[in-house]
Design brief:
By secondary structure, this protein is mainly α. The protein is built from 12 helices and no strands. It has a single domain, classed as ABC transporter involved in vitamin B12 uptake, BtuC.
Length: about 260
């Protein structure tokens, strides 16, 4: 079954959607959309470093994302606003990564596949990495769900309960970095934030509890991945952007549904 490239692509898309959904809920609740984008932009620098030193891509992307998170925290603590720190570092990392990739004269690289994804070229090895990373992210999220939710909703209550909000923030950052690393081939560096934020935002008008929001967001992400693949196959459109467009259509539909419910 895995010899069919469409089957591999579908499994990869669903795997990334399931891993990104619960994290996307925290990104929405914490208003961290720009932070997720900065982490994704740092990934291209990690890719360049991995190719330059002949190292595995996944660990270098994780390192680059964690360095980005540490740099943002450091600048924010020195008097800069969070939006300013993210704006400076996100675009610096993206520009530096693009420049570094072009300087790798001995490496033949399809840069567009990293920026916008190349889900149809997913191999069995890539599929193993994606589902392995998704399993780690889901296990980490389930393990820290209650403390992370408490730290998100009320940091003061979290401290009173013996929960360190900074530790939970670091765990969330690590999970975001892992999702970015495994999602590069599916939707690419420039679009991974959309797969984090839009399904969670689309699920919000339909649910009443955080757990339900995470589950519905996972379903919306999986439907978007499969719908985007179908659209790309039938209309010959780029697959990564097609997935995001399907997600945006679902978001518009759920937003309209929520508005109609409030009127009634």
């Amino acid at each position: 079954m895995l010899d069919d490239f469409l089957v591999r692509a579908a499994l990869a898309g669903v795997g990334v959607a399931i891993a990104a959904a619960p994290l996307g809920c925290f990104v929405v609740w914490r208003r961290m959309a720009y932070f997720g984008e900065a982490t994704a932009h740092a990934a291209i620098l990690g890719v360049a470093l991995a190719l330059a030193f002949s190292l595995p891509v996944l660990p270098m992307v994780l390192v680059a994302a964690l360095v980005m998170a540490s740099a943002v925290s450091g600048l924010t603590g020195r008097g800069y606003g969070m939006d300013t720190a993210l704006g400076v570092l996100a675009h610096t990392a993206l520009a530096a990564g693009l420049v570094a990739v072009t300087l790798l004269a001995d490496v033949r690289l399809d840069l567009m596949s990293f920026l916008f994804g190349d889900i149809l070229a997913i191999s069995r090895g890539d599929l193993g990495v994606i589902w392995g990373g998704a399993a780690v992210v889901l296990a980490l999220t389930l393990w820290r769900w209650s403390p992370l939710l408490t730290a998100t909703l009320n940091p003061d209550l979290a401290r009173a309960s013996g929960i360190d909000p900074r530790r939970e923030q670091f765990g969330l950052t690590l999970a975001l970095a892992l999702v970015v690393a495994v999602a590069i081939k599916v939707v690419g560096i420039l679009l991974i934030t959309a797969l984090l934020v839009i399904p969670a935002a689309a699920a919000r008008p339909l649910v009443r509890t955080p757990e339900a929001m995470a589950l519905v967001a996972a379903g919306i992400g999986a439907i978007s991945a499969l719908g985007g693949l179908w659209a790309a196959y039938h209309f010959d459109t780029p697959t990564g952007p097609s997935i995001v467009c399907v997600t945006a259509v679902i978001f518009a539909a759920t937003t309209l549904t929520g508005a109609l419910r409030r009127r009634r």
